[in-house]
Amino acid sequence: QVQLQESGPGLVKPSETLSLTCTVSGGSISSYYWSWIRQPPGKGLEWIGYIYYSGSTNYNPSLKSRVTISVDTSKNQLSLKLSSVTAADTAVYYCARRMPVAGTHGMDVWGQGTTVTVSS
Amino acid sequence: QSVLTQPPSASGTPGQRVTISCSGSSSNIGSNYVYWYQQLPGTAPKLLIYRNNQRPSGVPDRFSGSKSGTSASLAISGLRSEDEADYYCAAWDDSLSGFVVFGGGTKLTVL
Asked: In Å, what is the CA distance from A79 to each residue of A16, B31, B98?
């Protein structure tokens, strides 16, 4: 079965760029949409954006100016870059797969999440 | 401030039926499917309900979803201690170029 694993630095300095990778195992990244979602400590979920395996993207308007999501099909990985980070970007970051059902935005496979702290 | 509105807390005793509400608008719940996620402490969210009332394989039929207009509900019957978790509703929002919106989450306590 498909498994997702997020990885990247756990500590990022303010104003720098947060970079995370999600490795897909047990299945192909192709033919699916993939998401990044985050959860600040003690708070709710926030959707960051989607990427289709072909590379087309859709971002949360509140983060769009700072976010880039990309995919590397040869490595079965997707990546997240969030620029100009502040303490408000401190969160657990999850990658997730969108259900392979047309017109459906449910996310049925999730990684375990990785904690990123923004601090000097 | 979440786009979808949920009560911050809910509670029930074992065996009871509890419902959690989720309120949105015409651009999200009113015109798109609703999804529900369960997040147990310290774990990633798990999809409970998709397309308003469909359960993924493996989700017990104690969990059910419904939608009416711009609101939706998650019902849990035969409440169990292991149901104690945070529950989030979500939907696609058609405004701007479209994006996924979540509720603020409801913490369910099994008394």
From this structure: 16, 31, 21
Residue A104: φ, ψ to 5°: -110, 135
- Please check whether residue B87 is in contact with residue B36, taking contact to mean a CB–CB distance below 8 angstroms: yes
Residue B62 identity:
R
Task: State mean pLDDT over A90-98.
Answer: 98
Question: Distances from the Cα of B97 to the Cαs of A74, A102, B92, in angstroms?
Answer: 29, 18, 11
Q: What is the DSSP letter of A99?
A: P
pLDDT digits (tens, 9 = 90+) for B54-97: 999 999 999 999 999 999 999 999 999 999 999 999 999 999 98
CB contact under 8 A, B56 and A35: no
Q: Which of B2, B92, B98 sits opposite A44 (nearest CB)?
A: B2
Nearest 5°: CA angle at B6, between B2 and B11?
145
